[in-house]
Amino acid sequence: KTRKGKMKQSSQKAVAILGGVGPYAGLIIHKHILDLNSKFTPIQCDQDYVNIIHYSFSSQIQDRTSFLLKKITTNPGLGAAQLMLEINETAARQDRKVFAITPCNTFHAPPIFGAMEEELAKHKMENLEVFNLVKCTVGHIRESYPNAKKIGLMSTSGTREFRIYHDYLEPLGFEVVQVDEDLQDELHDTIYNQEWGIKVKGKTDKSVNNFKKYAEQLKQKGAETMILGCTEIPMVLDEGSYEGIPLIDPMEAAARSVLAALYGDQ
């Protein structure tokens, strides 16, 4: 297959990012997709890069943890479904196959992700394939760390309470270890605090020191690798490892999966 032919076929496809969950997460996965692109096809000019449709409408997708913890009643999956339908319409209009991902771990809790899937199932979706970020991450762990037994997880309280990663990892024989319950509220607050949390202030000395403390506790519990299970966490634990323990960024794992699907589906 010639490079010219490969470019022509891949140009008929695109990756879609359903962002705004939180907004910086969309930027981060967008960057991962561009950074990883050259591992799947030669990049010599702008036109060699994958096409990307990036929707970021935070106001249309309610907070995922607040919904799971019953602080609000509007299911974020329904707003996400409407945006996915708009992406599908764009793909159909352009006669383009699109591989879509939502860069939020908590969004993939069954009550939310399932609600979106149910809504999308009511419509003709021939142009859109929706990826599950958690499944992408678990697939990466199976491939890259098959001999690991204990997987550390740092996440929002919603992801923790609904066992989003547990329900995929435990049937495969992995043990999930998390921070002590009396530390979970502080971890969650480090993400969400309206004065100094990551969602508001980004990377600060306080958020970095807090997450190093949480990583140290997981290390003491025997974690052999750690999932940064909220898309804001890689903003502060951004070195790829902690004390020699690999840190897994689900957004990077998802970026690899959608690119592999796009370039593998020639």
Number of strands: 9
The N- and C-terminal alpha carbons lie at a distance of 10 Å
**Number of H/I helices:** 12
> What fraction of residues sit in β-strands?
15-25%
Structural class of the helix and strand makeup? alpha/beta
Note the overall shape.
Answer: globular
Helix content: 40-55%
**H/E topology pattern:** HEHEHHEHEHEHHEHHHEEEH
Outline the low-pLDDT stretches. Answer: 1-9
Please give the radius of gyration in angstroms.
18 Å
What is the mean predicted local confidence, pLDDT? 93
Main beta-sheet strand count, sense and barrel state: 5 strands, mixed
Which strand order do you get reading across the main beta sheet? 6-5-7-9-8
Question: How does this model look, in words?
Answer:
This protein is α/β, with parallel strands linked by helices and 266 residues long. It is 47% helix and 15% strand. The chain contains twelve helices and nine strands. It has helices at 3-10, 23-36, 64-68, 76-93, 110-120, 133-144, 157-161, 166-169, 181-192, 198-201, 205-220, 250-264, and strands at 13-19, 52-56, 97-101, 128-130, 150-155, 175-177, 225-229, 241-242, 245-248. The chain has a five-stranded mixed beta sheet. Strands 2-1-3-4 form a four-stranded parallel beta sheet, with helices on both faces. Helix 2 links the parallel strand 1 and strand 2 (52-56). Helix 2 (23-36) packs across helix 12, helix 6 crosses helix 12 and helix 9 packs antiparallel against helix 11 (205-220). The longest helix is centred in the N-terminal third of the chain and has 18 residues, at 76-93. The chain starts with a helix and ends with a helix.
